[in-house]
């Protein structure tokens, strides 16, 4: 049996870290206005894990974009690291992982807000949410 994959990451200053074990549920992009505003970028790239596969260490601060979710960040450097929902999932920002090129998105949400110059071929697209909280 192959060893379970363990990936690490965290914030820019290193105070807030995480360890993700196993494989994610899905990988996507989001073009909604909240993701654009909090990242300062044209979209948010993320990976979804079951919450019981992720361990978080360090202090966090959070604010709620909706009653069902929390946007979590490092209180020291302000790095956006992950989002939590009221259920059983955690959304980790791709840029928060210690290594690049770990995941390839398979879908994108809120494409009605996507920049016209951004080409995302071969992704399943949703005009708004894909049905889940994230």
From TrEMBL:
InterPro entries: CENP-V/GFA (IPR006913), Mss4-like_sf (IPR011057). SUPFAM superfamilies: Mss4-like (SSF51316). PROSITE patterns: CENP_V_GFA (PS51891). Keywords: Lyase, Metal-binding, Zinc. Pfam families: GFA. Residues 7-108 form the CENP-V/GFA domain. Belongs to the Gfa family. This is GFA family protein.
